[in-house]
Amino acid sequence: MTSRDKIFPGKPSRRIVIAGLAGSALMAPRLARASEKVNLVLNWTPTADHAPYYFAKAEGWYEKEGIDLTIEAGRGSGASAQRVAAGGAQLGIADMATALLARSRGSNLSAVMVVYANSPQGFYWLKSSGITGPKDFPGRSIGNPPGDASRLMWPAFARKVGIDPASVRFVNVSPQAKIQALRSKAIDITSDFYNEHDLKVREFGADLGFAPWREMGLNPYGNSIIVNGDYLARNAETVAKFVRVSQRAFRACVGDIGPGLKALMGAVSGLDESNQRDQWKRILELMRDPTTTSVALGALDAGRLKDDYDLVKAFFENVGEVDLSKFATNSFLDTSIKMPAA
């Protein structure tokens, strides 16, 4: 029996997905009350990857399931994981590795749907600065927000590419100021999601340097829907309804992002539709993998999740034991909804 078989007993294949959470949360779910107030805290300010939630809300899909949904802007995966774990929001969006690290340190949260089956993380720089790749990062500055998942996961990236994690200087830069800070050379490097790749290509052209994590041997799961553990134990039925409505919304947006962007831009000011459409094309790449196309849109694979946990244990201190079968589940997903193949 392999270590993965022990983590997921009765499931000998690495590619078999997580069967579900153990415990009373799924044994005796409580029916959702009519118009139950539920808060969803995002990982960052709303953009195209959040359009499905706004679309489903605008269409009344959550309301029809008895969910009075409030969507809140976030300040990074670390911040959203903390807020959900503390009960400040019932649901949230957070980078999977960040959520795993938080769970290992005692945070009361679980993952119920993966949005990014591939890591969206990447580092950007200007070639004219003399940087040719991550080996040239030592002695340079990296600008991103304090709660940015890539800053939290920096030790793993640095050691993977063979540099000292302490060899760079971090500068606090808001998401909206990353391009300007790079252009003005206030920073040497910035981290960002692949969603925004086209915007940087238009801005910097051939001078743009880019290192996606997934091409550096690091491809942990990205943004996922997380839920407060106590809330899940009391309201498994509500969580199931939220997840399945969100799946439907993602499927609708995969088919036609137009209505989703209309809903998003109707609720959020200052977004450029052309840029958001470019983002969505990149998001489709990030959402697609063998599990999401064959099992369910939003499904996790047990073997990959174990790899993510091993990554966290290898590169971080104070990582506690996590029962992965209780941390993450596919049991709330509608398996009739699958991510289309490319």
Structure description:
The chain has helices at residues 3-7, 24-27, 51-58, 61-64, 77-85, 96-104, 149-152, 154-161, 178-183, 197-204, 229-234, 236-255, 257-267, 273-287, 290-294, 302-315, 324-327, and strands at 36-41, 67-72, 91-95, 109-114, 121-126, 141-144, 169-172, 189-193, 208-212, 223-228. With 342 residues, it is an alpha/beta fold. It has a five-stranded mixed β-sheet, sandwiched between helices. A five-stranded mixed β-sheet has the order 7-6-8-5-9. Helix 3 (51-58) packs across helix 13 (257-267), helix 6 crosses helix 16 (302-315) and helix 13 (257-267) packs across helix 14 (273-287). The radius of gyration is 19 Å and the shape is globular. Residues 1-33 have low confidence and may be disordered.
